[in-house]
Structures are given as structure tokens and as C-alpha cells.
Amino acid sequence: MAKAATPVEVSKEQLVQDFKVLVADAEALLKATASQSGEAVTAMRARVGESLAVAKDKLTEVERVALDKAKAAAVATDEYVHEKPWHAVGIAAGVGLIIGLLIGRR
């Protein structure tokens, strides 16, 4: 059974797609500007502007979701350390030991 994509993963994929559309529109704008002027250039610039606005909005949303998740993780970690300080010390010591062993092998 396939794992369902989270909203952040879907947003990342959509953001990448929106930037691809933006690049394609920018390339088309360059081609239109080189060979034509007037209405075609104005219409293409409008499309590029709209694509850029959508991409910026989605990027802002992805950043907001990532920040919210980071804050939630920090709060959960803080609560865990306050509830079980000796567990946290043990975990930190274990991680430090492993890192020390890995560095010592070099």
C-alpha cells in the first residue's frame, strides 16, 4: 500500500511544478520579445506575472507550514526534556558516544 503524501509534500511538488511553468513562461516571454512587440509581449508579461504571483504564494504557504512544524517539534522536544530529563541526558550521551566513535575512526 502506497504512503499518502502529506500536505507539505504535495505543496513541494506543486511548488516545483509552478516554478517549471514560470521558467517556461519566462522563456516564452524572451522569445516573444525578440521577434514581436505590442500585444503579444503584453499578454506574455501578464502570464509571467500571474505565474510568479502563484509561485510566491505557494512558497509562502510551504514556508509557513514548515515553520509551524518546526515550532511544534521544538515544543514537543522541550516538553519531553522537562518530563524525562534523564532520558534526554541518556539519549544525548548515546548520540555523543556514537559521533565520537565515528570521528575517532578517521
Structure, explained:
Helices cover 89% and strands 0% of the residues. The mean pLDDT is 79. The protein is elongated, with a radius of gyration of 24 Å. The protein has one domain (7-104). It has helices at 7-35, 39-83, 85-104. The longest helix is centred in the middle third of the chain and has 45 residues, at 39-83. Helix 2 (39-83) packs across helix 3 (85-104). With 106 residues, it is mostly helical.
How would you summarize what this structure contains?
It contains 3 helices and no strands. By secondary structure, it is an all-alpha fold.
Rg over alpha carbons:
24 Å
The main sheet comes to: none
Q: Give the tally of β-strands.
A: 0
Inertia-based shape: elongated
Architecture blueprint of SSEs:
Elements: H1 7-35, H2 39-83, H3 85-104
Helix pairs in contact: 1-2, 2-3
